[in-house]
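for the writeup, i need someone to sanity check this before i put it in the appendix. the sequnce is what the collaborator sent (i think, or maybe the updated version? ugh). structure was predicted straight from it, no edits. if anything looks off just tell me and ill rerun, i have time this weekend
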Amino acid sequence: MLTFFTVLSWLATGFLGGVIMASFCEWALHRYVMHRPILNFTYPFRSHALVHHHIFKSDHTYHVINPADKKIIPMAWWNGPAIITVGMIPVLIATLPFGHWDIALGTLLAFGSYYGAYEYMHWCMHLPKARRVERSWVFYRLNGHHLLHHRYMHKNFNVVMPFADLCMGTLMLRSKIKFPQARGAAVPDVQPRR
């Protein structure tokens, strides 16, 4: 019989593993699906690389200029459930035959939390309003990370946790050249060091 602490430890294992896995899933989805067309499946590429990056650049347009552009910040409502479902398939295949629904549940909670964090932080990055999260050091660093992605689309694919960027060699901490960048209380200076 499983004890409460055994189940809790497997849930925590699934959650921690899920957060790491989510960083790599976000990276792969962003790099290989949202920044290039895949055969006839061009929706993510068109809506992200062609529309989102066209409207939100790394200069003053990083923040919403036209109120109608707010609708371009988040993904479509159905993307979250679809992405989480696809990400859970290998997890379910690896855990359920061994009776580890607790690991699968922990991973599902991690994926859902990660996606929610992605959407909320991404929203705050492009539509700043001095929210509590925007005053945190973590958000400040991640906002600079994302700003550099809008300057260099082949770098900094993670929004929430740049662990995969670090591991995959796409992490950029500062620009190598000077460029007109967005400014604001929650936007760090990512210009080259003198």
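The mean pLDDT is 96. Residues 4-129 form one domain.
thx in advance!!
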